[in-house]
Write a structure and sequence with these properties.
By secondary structure, the chain is mostly helical. The chain is built from 2 helices and no strands.
Length: 62
């Protein structure tokens, strides 16, 4: 995956998370959980994109 695609995806995810945190009213605990889940998902996605975590590609849904 080209580096520009990674950067664009990270910016979109970051802006989306910022918009959700600022403009959707919800409890602080829920926001914290949402932020943690998004950060973990992004880290796992980055590790898979750079080939450091190839085991996730074997997991299929369905």
């Amino acid at each position: 995956m080209p580096l520009i695609n990674l950067i664009i995806t990270l910016v979109v995810v970051g802006v989306g998370l910022w918009l959700i945190n600022d403009y959707i009213p919800m409890d602080g605990k829920i926001k914290r959980i949402l932020n943690i889940v998004v950060v973990i998902a992004v880290v796992l996605w980055l590790l898979t994109a750079f080939g450091l975590l190839s085991g996730l590609s074997a997991i299929t849904v369905g």
